[in-house]
Batch of 3 targets.
Target 1
Amino acid sequence: MTEHDFNQQLLAFLDASPTPFHATQKMLEQFLAAGYQSLDERDTWSLQSGGRYVVTRNASSLVAFTLPSDPVVTGFRLMGAHTDSPCLKIKTQPEQVTKGYLRLGVETYGGVLLSTWFDRDLSIAGRVSYQSTAGEIKHQLINFKRPVGVIPNLAIHLNREVNNGVAINAQTQLPVMVMQLGEGEKGSFNEILLQQLQTEGVSDAEQILEHDCILFDTQKAAVVGLQNDFITSARLDNLLSCFIGMQSMLSGGDAVASVLVCNDHEEVGSLSASGAQGPLLKSILKRVAQTEERYQQMIAASMMISCDNAHGIHPNHAALHDDNHAPLLNAGPVIKLNANQRYASNSETSAWFKWVCQQASVPVQSFIMRSDLACGSTIGPITSAELGVRTVDVGVPQFAMHSIRELAGTKDAYHLMKALVYFLQIERI
């Protein structure tokens, strides 16, 4: 696959994945098309040497794995990412009518860069749970696709100090305006969802029981710059890594046992049944190993690369970076390090990743946060602690992390995939 083809497929994946549910569905479809067998956690598994398998939980987290040889002997080559991104989530009973405008109340999910959500063409997507005409409880993904709402900014004439920095109140200033009502009309979000289900071909929905819906920006992902240097899109953090991991699995061959885990809920701490601090990955690996001793042997022989985007040095704010650890866009994937274990990288695992990049002819960089600034974290330390597996935290450098629209380089994701493909071919670590 060429870099151009890779990036075009990446853009399509980003546009098709407005929520963790949609991202997981798209990855599941691609794995199944490549011959992976879907497993249900409720069933008895009969895993075969040479088999390729995929499991989902909550329809928002995914684990894909291959078994070409005995993983107890060779260990697993693990890759991790997360499916969720900071966003605005629509409340269960969101209707607010003011001066004839129907607005939907929202909650902030994760560390949202709130100012970027104003004056955007917003749509709605997510999962709807409903009662069918036959009395069954069913679940359906929906995507309005077209712009259906906006959060209008207040004119500068009414807020003269806005350019000096103004706090944003999530309760009162973020409800999204979706409709202007006639006199005596009452807006109902559940009725809106019922109509959307019908539009998307669901004919048996009788009553909405619950929904898990978010707002998203309808502007398409794009390659930008005079020399096409950059990719700009929503949800680069961290669907970019999910796509890289998926393409690495599909391109990496079957030399050794390999795993891709894409967890939900990283942006809110990972503590959930489908998050990295939950039991999903461990339970699957234990079912592969079958006994506790074999599991411990397998983990000791394994290594994990946790992929989550890194902070590239911002040319307008260069002073906020450590000059010696300030990654550039399009200069290769980044090893993320932190003395206080906010990242799981250590000298052993960092050395391994540098060696992998050298073998794959991929440039590599390092990132350490300024010592006087707080550092973020990833699923790396959580998964490493849960499993006891050697782990390195890496990622593609980007700007505008947690904005409604983020920016990365056109070369870095492809470089990281090449490194991961090589990683999946190493017989002993």
Note: The two ends are 27 Å apart (CA to CA).
Target 2
Amino acid sequence: MINSSVYPVGTFGQPWGEAELAQWRDRQSRLRRYDVDVVPRIDALADRYEKIAYGQLDYAGERYTLFALRDRHFDPALPTALVTGGVHGYETSGVLGALDFLETCAADYAGKINLLVAPCVSPWAYERINRWNYDAIDPNRNFRADGPAREATALIELVGSVQGPFLVHVDLHETTDSDASEFGPALAARDGKAYETDVIPDGFYLVDDSENPQPEFHRSIIAAVEQVTHIAPADAKGEIIGSTVIAHGVIEYPMKKLALCCSITGARYTTTTEVYPDSPRTTPAECVRAQVATVCAALDFALES
């Protein structure tokens, strides 16, 4: 379905320039605080994990330090797992799920696998409950070493500094009603295109890598998450957000080709989660638990394999 309604920024059918970008920025306001919500929880974990400042953002004088946490006893003989949250800042359960995992479950994996966790990759967007960064760029289409999103390049640099191979990468995301009401229309307006309306799936699903498919891995995660929250069904076309459902609650994308976050480690086992916090069948707390269940199930499967 094509929705030709005009987004409040720009001229329909014309890509944005600097004036439109400035107008879009003027619409963004700080709705929550990274330094209040997220950083204190990272600081509280610093007695158990090494806190790493892996990058700095400076957006019109607003400065953000990018933080990660890793095992203090990082054993290069062990495999390594990366957990990322908040690549899209508005996807709250990704941030909270990464932190909750560290606070409640991560100790169970000590001595089995090295953990590296970046709980909030995009703090400017976290504060504005937005998908894009300050430059109206989606970090999760720009995970390239020469890409335009500092949120992405800083994380790539952090990954490159790690000794030894990665076995697992779990990237924690959400699909929300605002994808259809705000972020999809904004993307179309920015690029001078008509907006094609998506049907928002009701429930949790995963995105596998079509260039490195791991069906059993994803099946095991869905089985674990199904004990926590409901799984999104396929639509009438057998799709979720326009992609063919290849297994219960699983679609796939070419991660490297699309420059998605899960492409940066070269890990054997990678997945991107999508929970749906706007569903009447779930709660924000349940969505966070689903994210934690995903991480634990992913690590358990990888270690047992």
Note: The chain has a mean pLDDT of 96.
Target 3
Amino acid sequence: MVRFVDQNDELGSVESGLGIQKAAGNTEVDDDGKPNRTGTIWTASAHIITAVIGSGVLSLAWGVAQLGWIAGVITLLMFSGITLYTSSLLADCYRSPDTGKRNYSYKEVVKNNLGYRMYIACALVQYANLCGTIVGYTITASISMAAIEKSDCFHERGHEAECSVSHNPYMIGLGILELFLSQIPNFHNLSILSIIAAVMSFGYASIGVGLALAKVISGDGKRTTLAGVEIGIGLSAADKTWRMFRAFGCIAFAYTYSQILVEIQDTLKSSPPENQVMKRANIVGISTTTIFYMMCGCVGYAAFGNDAPGNLLTGFGFYEPYWLVDAGNIAIVVHLIGAYQVFAQPVFGAVEQWAAKKWPKSKVVTEEYKIRICRSKRWMIRINFLRLIWRSLFVCVATLLAMVLPFFNDVLAFLGAMGYWPLTVYFPIQMYISKNKIGWWTGRWLGLQFINMLCLLVAIAAICGSIQGLGKSVKTYQPFQVKD
């Protein structure tokens, strides 16, 4: 049974593709005529944890090893505090300062607080960062899937066996799965997927910490130092500096989720006020991730010392306990499948909102078809041709880029470095100053600008480190030849 639903109402960036026609007297709508939001502090916290605790958590032991106990721990805590503070500032800017109207995306918040030019700059940085993250997640998920096959191969055939594994089939498989998941209409329908992904992030982080802790307790922990890796044979002062720059960037960017904060906040119920609930969700999400980051970074460093691996799970080898390492990699894959959608939805919504305004009478853009898959009305699939074509094309291009650019993680680090400072620090601070009319050279203005400049310097250092790493990767570039 197929029927279509007219969709001529103006769409918000995260609500495009809903296919809901508002009937006269319908009470199931929000203050702007859109469907009532159902998000709570717990669903928002799940979205935050899914976005923040990425597979990058497993590289924190390496980051702490480059900085040492003192600088490593201070850096973890410092960026936790900065991210929590600026996220709270951004939450207060969700509604327009003059009209109190909801803003459905980060770039709209910037437009209504800082003007059109800043809106364009924000959009360019935000979507480049989101698209880069999606391609990077495709690569990272394929690495974990290949690691599972490699681990099983060693277990069955012995540690001396040849177990080279290609990543390409796994990238293609992930792309096929994301083709289906990308048809989830919008952020409001991602709660269950985000909760599952958040649980998985706890799972693989806990496995990594547990294995590292067991290594420390057994007395196999390696040598650590207050200043981290030491200059000597095989490590020059310049190499040490580049590593420290990358470590700063790694830790700073591990906390960022501002590029999707507004979209998450727009899923919350209107009562109590969204900014109050979002601030509490920020505290829950950042506090939770900081605890896991401290455990992964510090316990991992204690276990592996100055030779800490880039991926905590691979530091235990592909051998025993192979089943536990496999479980950790499976959890990474499931988490990244959900995180892919969390980062993709703002991109999907932006294009669909633009198309709805450009061609409001087009049936391809506005009409939806409901396909009942069984007799129950609850089990229906909604098809919109724009959503089907555009999102499928996006997933295919992202998968192809991941296969063509095996060194894309270095490009992603560069995009992350470029996006961290403006999205997480600069725009929230400038909007807060503008909204609250904070005067120049006042104590509060100076404090905010100090945070601004500190994070800018870190971002510049991380950009330099990522460019240096990118230069090394290009020298060994072989398209479609990614193997472990």
Note: The mean pLDDT is 81.
